[in-house]
Amino acid sequence: MRTIYLDNNATTAVDPEVREALWPYLTEYYGNASSMHEFGGALRHRIEEARGQAAALLGCEAGEVIFTSGGTESDNTAIRGVLAAQPRKRHLITTRVEHPAVLSACRQMQREGYRLTELGVDGSGRLDLEELRGALTDETALVSVMWANNETGVLFPIEEIGSMARSRGALVHTDAVQAAGKLAIDLARLPVDLLSVSGHKLHAPKGVGLLYVRRGTRVQPLMLGGHQEFGRRAGTENVAGIAALGKACELSRRRLVEETARVGRLRDRLEEGLLRDCLDARVNGDRSARLANTTNISFEYVEGEAILLMLDRLGVCASSGSACTSGSLEPSHVLRAMGVPFTAVHGSIRFSLSRFTTEEEIDFVIGEMPGIIGRLREISMFRPERDATGEGPRERRPGLSAPRR
Ligand code: PLP
User: Fold this and answer.
1) Which range (106-110, 116-120, 385-389) has the least confidence?
2) Which atom in ligand 1 lies closest to the alpha carbon of residue 206?
3) Which end of the chain is more exposed for a tag (fewer CB within 10 A), N or C?
4) Does the C-beta of 365 come closer than 6 Å to ligand 1?
5) Residues 78-91: tens digit of each pLDDT
6) Distance 10 CA to ligand 1 centre (A)
7) Are 194 and 102 members of one domain?
C-alpha cells in the first residue's frame, strides 16, 4: 500500500539530493574533521561550505551558525546559555504554546530560581503584544518566542516582538524549527539574537540542527569538551548530518518561493474540501498569518485518535497534535491555550504538507474523510442532535460533560 505522508511538521522525507550529499561522509570520507592529517582535515571544508549554505538561507554570517544535534539542543542551548551568561538578570518570557523543547527548558529555569512569564494567546493562537510589553522589565534576560507553531502553523510577529524586547534590553530567541525553509528569513535585518533550526523538518536527516547566535551575543555552551564549533558546542562534528543540512538549506533557499506557493495551494484545496464535505469541521488558528503547509482542523464530536487510525489503514499519515506529545492522552496544550472547546480539541487533526505532496494525494484524503467522520459520528458518545434536514448540530445531549482522563 502506498503511503500518503501528511505529517511533515513531525518530520520530513530526506530529499534525494540531500541523501546524495551526505552519503560520501558515511562511506569514503569517514575522517575526523579536527585531525591534523589531510584525510580528516579535508572534511573541515565541507563543514564550512555547509555553514555558508545555512547562512545564505538565514541571511546571516557563516560565523554566526553553530551546528547542533537538532532543534531541542538548539533551544536548550539558547535558553540556558543566555541565562548563564547574564547572571544578574533573573527573568525570562516565553509563551504557553511553545514546543516542549522550549517550554520544559524555561520551566526548568523557573525551578532553578528564575522568574518566568508565560504569555497567553487568543482563540486564534495570536499573542497580545501589550501583554508582552507589560511583562518586560529591566530584569528580563531573554524573550523566547516561536516563529511558527508546530501544531497550528500560526505565525508570531517576530519582528515586532524582537523590537519590543530589545527596547528593554532583553535578548531575543526564536524557535524557527517550523519556519526555516518555509518562510523567508533575513537575520541581517531582524531584531533576533538567537534562532533554532532542525534538519529533519526541512528534508535533512534527524539528529542535526543549528543555532544562530548573533555576533557578540554571550552564550555559555551546553556541551563542554573539545573546541569544535568555535568552542561553543563541543563534540566531534556530525559531518554527514552537517553536509546534509547544508544541502537542505541550499535547496530550501532555491525553491522557497515556488514551493511555498504550490504547497499553499494544495493546503487550501485540502482545507476547503474538508470544510465543505465534513459536517462540524472548523480550522484552529489564525488563517491569515499561518505557514503555507499546515492546517489544523477539528472534527467535532469524534476522537482524533480514531480518525488517525482509520486514515492509517488507508496509508494516510497525519497527526492529532505534536508528534512529541502524542503517545500521551493529554489533549494538546496549544489548543487548550487557545481555548478551543473540549469536543473540538479531541477531534483535532493536523495535516502538514511538503514539497513531495501531490494533488492526487490531497484529493484522495478529501474523498475519504467525509466517510470516516460520518462512520465515527455514528458511534460517537458525543454525537450532536441534528434537525430533520441533517443540517444540525441543533443541540448537544443534555448532561454531556468532559470525561475524566
Ligand atoms: N521546536 C519545534 C517548534 C518543533 O516542532 C520541534 C520538533 O517537533 C522541535 C523544536 C524539536 O526539534 P528536534 O526534533 O530537532 O529536537
Assistant:
1) 385-389
2) 15
3) N
4) no
5) 999 999 999 999 99
6) 8
7) yes
Q: What is the C-alpha separation between 352 and 151, in angstroms, rounded?
A: 9
- Structural domain contains residue 46: yes
**Nearest protein CA to atom 5 of ligand 1, as residue:** 150
Total-model pTM: 0.93
Mean pLDDT, residues 354-378: 97
For the chain, the domain total comes to 2
Per-residue 3-state assignment (H helix, E strand, C coil) for 331-378: CCHHHHHCCCCHHHHHCEEEEECCCCCCHHHHHHHHHHHHHHHHHHHH
Q: SS3 of 127, please?
A: strand
Q: Is residue 398 part of a domain?
A: no
Say yes or no: 98 and 163 in one domain: yes
Q: What rounded mean pLDDT belongs to the chain?
A: 92
Active site residue 60: no
Provide mean pLDDT across the span 168-184. Answer: 98
Ligand 1 close to Cβ of residue 71 (< 6 A): yes
User: Residue 245 belongs to what domain range?
Assistant: 14-253
Residue 401 lies in a domain: no
Q: For ligand 1, say whether the CB of 78 is within 6 Å of any of its atoms.
A: no
- 129 shares its domain with 176: yes
Give the separation between CA 95 and CA 103, rounded to whole angstroms. Answer: 8
Domain assignment present for residue 7? The answer is no
Evaluate if residue 355 carries a pLDDT over 50: yes
